[in-house]
Write a structure and sequence with these properties.
Elements lengths: L5 E4 L6 H5 L8 E5 L2 E5 L5 H7 L11 E3 L5 H4 L2 H8 L9 E5 H4 L16 E5 L4 E4 L2 E5 L12 E5 L2 E6 L15 E10 L11 E2 H11 L3 E5 L3 H5 L2 H12 L2 E4 L4 E4 L2
Parallel strand pairs: 3-4, 4-5, 5-6, 10-11, 11-12, 11-13, 13-14
Antiparallel strand pairs: 1-2, 1-15, 2-3, 7-8, 8-9, 9-10
Bound molecules: zinc ion.
Length: 259
């Protein structure tokens, strides 16, 4: 029997202060689709949360890792997970998908000796389609985040589930997420930062984006301190009421059942 399609938010931390103090876990997002198991953005604590999750997720059964970008809160555990999922290289298996900046150059995040443990390493580019073992996904336009960053959308027969990862809001962002049935958004801040230099979404951006896209369901995650203080579930409730949409704030360990 194929295991159910689901998304499990192992962690929901989003900014330096929240990550450094682990006010929320900074573990990544576990996605199970068509019987395949994927980790998106394995930040610090992902390996621990996989093991401690109830029910535990067997790291040796992961099929793919996707990095949206190289920032430490999205990529810290990638190496240890590659090692674990391939049993230290004794079982060559699994795929890694990541933008070029994660793989080459000064900020490359994958240790060289681990690379041939995997069945494949695929360089992500903007607005392209990818697939592995029957699971298909596409990348967004480049996000405005200061480092090479792409959101990802998985096409399912029941509708598209999209992950709008770290970015500053810009009008061209929306076209990559049109038609999403479920939209997961990294909403780090409550209000825009005064400097205008913070390349993250805030709750005001989320309102504008959701009003335009109107997904069947939205999930907010990746919270910084201003969102935690405002209580993410209250922010989500307010957006739900204002927009007449189903908006939920993720919490650590929350499972979203897709079936
Ligand atoms: Zn980032």
């Amino acid at each position: 029997m194929t295991p159910p399609d689901l998304v499990k938010f192992l962690g929901t931390a989003g900014a330096r202060y929240v990550v450094a103090r682990q006010l929320r876990s900074s573990a990544g997002t576990f996605i199970q689709l068509g019987g395949k198991r994927i980790i998106l953005d394995p930040g610090p604590g992902t390996l621990v949360r996989l093991a401690k999750s109830k029910p535990a997720v067997d790291v040796a059964k992961l099929d793919a890792i996707i990095l949206s970008h190289a920032h430490i809160d999205h990529s810290n555990d990638v190496n240890v997970i590659v090692d674990a999922m391939t049993e230290g290289g004794f079982k060559r298996r699994g795929f890694l998908f990541a933008p070029r900046e994660c793989l080459e150059g000064k900020n490359a995040v994958i240790l060289d000796y681990l690379r041939n443990f995997l069945d494949g390493i695929v360089t992500l580019e903007a607005q392209r389609e990818y697939s592995f073992e029957g699971v298909g996904f596409s990348t967004s336009v480049p996000h405005d985040h200061g480092t090479e960053t792409y959101g990802v959308s998985f096409q399912r027969s029941a509708g598209k589930i999209a992950f709008m990862v770290d970015t500053r809001y810009f009008p061209g962002l929306l076209k990559s997420y049109e038609g999403a049935d479920i939209l997961v958004m990294n909403v780090v801040r409550l209000k825009p930062h005064r400097s205008g230099e913070v390349r993250h979404l805030c709750a005001d951006d989320a309102r504008e984006i959701l009003a335009a896209l109107r997904p069947r369901k939205a999930v907010l995650t990746h919270f910084g301190m201003t969102m935690l203080r405002a209580k993410p579930w209250l922010v989500a409730q307010r957006l739900s009421d204002e927009l007449g949409l189903d908006v939920t704030a993720a919490s650590d360990g929350m499972t979203l059942d897709l079936d």
